Amino acid sequence: MSELKFGRYTVLDEIGRGSSGIVYRGKDPLMDRVVAIKTIHTQSLQDEDPDKVKRFLQRFQREARASGVLSHANIVTIFDIGEENGLPYIAMEFIAGSTLSSIMTKKQLLKEGKVFKILKQVADALDYAHSQGVIHRDVKPGNVMYCDNDFIKVMDFSIARMEVPDMGTITTSGTILGTPFYMPPEQILGNKTTNKSDIYSLGVVAYELLTGSLPFPGSSIASIIYKVLHEKPIMHKKLLDLAKTANAWDDCFLKVLAKNSDDRFASASDFVDSLKKHFYIEPMEPALPKKKQQERPKFQETRILHYSHRKKNPFEDDTFDKTTLLPSDYKSASRMKGLTDSGGPGRPGPPEQKQVSQPPKVINPVPRPEPFLTTAVVLKQETSFLSKLLMAALITALLAIIYLILAQLFPVLRIIDLPFMV
To answer: What CA–CA distance (Å, rounded) separates 114 from 116?
Structure first.
């Protein structure tokens, strides 16, 4: 079987198929790179007048070349256009990813932060295209490729309209190209499209990404077109839950989906900024990991006081009366000695000093106090109290005798007359 080729491009496999054509993954042997090849069906362009079809194809190729001059990080780059056996094709940059439409078919909404990143990039791409005089006219989830790291690429400018005077236009009044769900009223009516037509389509995409539904649902093309032209978009509960301000719906979605293009936002970035202002969709900054606090070791005594405030260590003071220690104090004293020598738990001890070699000092262990020693201490305390009391009584008696002698000699000093006083 002969391999399928479009010009110098060799077809590797089929990527997707749509109403307007087929997309293949191909190989460019000249540049040694993988490309995406999109073909355009000529069946939908059948006409009794062959010249009319030829002129249509010429205009299509001319506008495809014009969209190929777009150079933006969020726009798929077009490498080449051509025709093979009467079938036109476009060779473009191959993107490894999925379209937003295939992601939304999984019945799982993207997080609001990711939606904001996607809409911001699409808005930047559309504003750049509009600044170059190119109107996409088919902005929809199927034409937005979603890549790794939330990076997107806008593709399929095949029905784009150029506003350059000498480039002509691909469509005339009364011709409808696009997807009805995302088309603005002026495009449905076949009137002239502007950059605000793409902004309308971006508003529909934003509505669908945030809610999972469309603002103008319908079971047929006729019902969809009628709602787009005559009815207001459905106010979804999800958007009310995300609203920051009371007039978020009116100032954002009713404005971007206005029937009259003059009432819409001036640029796609203005619409995204309004979304950020009125709805909670901006991405959250990742929280910095908290530093794990090192747990302090738990000791019975965690504070090491200055040496001047420490208790006297009986093992280091030879004058300390070790016989007054109770048995429960030996454990405390031993622990205090360990803290003093090491500088405390977890702390380095005092710097080592070179010592003159001396015979080791032998500390005899403190003998366990006998019961009679404790009794002797108590008796000694009681004897001291009685001696003080006796001394006070003797001093009082001596003072009384001196007073009596002075009162006998000097009657003026008498306070009371006693019987034995003359």
So the answer is: 5
